[in-house]
Design brief:
The protein is an alpha/beta fold and 301 residues long. Helix content is 40%, strand content 18%. It has a single domain, classed as 3-Layer(aba) Sandwich (Protocatechuate 4,5-dioxygenase, Chain B), CATH 3.40.830.10. A hairpin with a 6-residue loop joins β3 and β4. α4 runs parallel beside α9.
């Protein structure tokens, strides 16, 4: 967001929406954040790629200018959530040393001013490493977590972090041709600062080309993004069970699967009863190679 700048009027609208979200969070004053987020081959690799993972300890790599360092993970709650989710017949793994990237750090930076301001339980949802399970599994994960959170005597804020339609230059194992790329997808947890900088520079350059309209990347799809947000607003979350993986890619690009984090977050809220969406913002931002949206929601009663 800070390396490829959209037109000033677009950024102003985004900043206004973020101000509204920060007001929403400040008024609620959460005691715990449960954060559903993706990874971009910074913490999870093909040497052991779980579909879901709850972190009992986590550290951010600090990519793309986001905060790095340890997250203040509520370890006891994280471990309890793992047991509760497994007890509801949903498979989830656990990590005592989860490595997270901007998918987790960015929302904490933007909403709280840093990654160390509030206790958090990070929940990883695989959204890039194929093969992927059906989107309905993310909904059931969210339901299981939301049902467990209802037992806590705390103000819990649930966040889903990820782009809507977008197809950035993330390598895919099925298309990888060089041994170097394959090796990076299998295990590249400790790249050198030079390697990380070069990787980020490639993505930023792709964003500049995309914004200029000279890219071969798949275009954003505001109509698909609107349809996705409509389902969230209506609360008909089981509709997502019919959205096939191929359709996700066809309509929104390979990284549109990141909306699984949104599905899980809204399902966690819905597990506690009807809800209402209190704000909805959307803007297709070519400079970020993403359909950018921001919503807030709360129980209806």
């Amino acid at each position: 967001m800070e390396h490829s700048r959209p037109p000033s009027d677009v950024r102003a609208k985004v900043d206004s929406a973020l101000d509204g979200a920060r007001d929403f969070v400040r008024a609620y004053d959460p005691e715990l954040v449960v954060l559903f987020g993706p990874d971009h081959y910074n913490g999870f690799f093909y040497d052991m790629m779980p579909p879901f993972c709850i972190g009992a300890g986590a550290e951010a790599v600090g990519d793309f200018g986001t905060s790095g360092g340890k997250l203040p993970v509520d370890r006891d709650t994280a471990r309890w959530l793992v047991a509760e989710v497994l007890g509801q017949d949903v498979d989830v793994t656990m990590s005592e040393r989860m490595i997270v990237d901007h998918g987790f750090a960015q929302p904490l930076d933007l909403l709280f001013g840093g990654i160390d301001r509030v206790p958090v339980v990070p929940v990883f949802i695989n959204a890039v490493a194929e093969p992927l399970g059906p989107a309905g599994r993310a909904r059931r994960l969210g339901e299981a977590i939301g049902g467990a959170l209802a037992e806590l005597d705390q103000r819990v804020l649930v966040i889903g972090s990820g782009g809507l339609s977008h197809d950035p230059p993330v390598p895919r194992m099925a298309e990888a041709e060089s041994p170097e790329v394959i090796a990076r997808l299998i295990d590249n947890r400790n790249p050198s600062p030079q390697e990380r900088a070069a990787r980020e520079a490639r993505v930023i350059a792709a964003a500049h080309t995309f914004a200029a309209g000279t890219s071969q990347l798949q275009p954003l799809n505001p109509a698909w993004d609107a349809a996705f947000l409509d389902v969230l607003e209506l609360g008909t979350l089981t509709d997502f069970d019919t959205w096939t993986n191929d359709w996700f890619v066809e309509q929104g690009g390979h990284s549109a699967h990141e909306v699984r984090t949104w599905i899980a977050a809204y399902a966690a809220l819905a597990a506690q009863g009807p809800y209402r969406m209190t704000s909805r913002f959307y803007e297709p931002v070519e400079a970020w190679i993403a359909g950018f949206a921001l919503t807030t929601a709360e129980p209806a009663a």
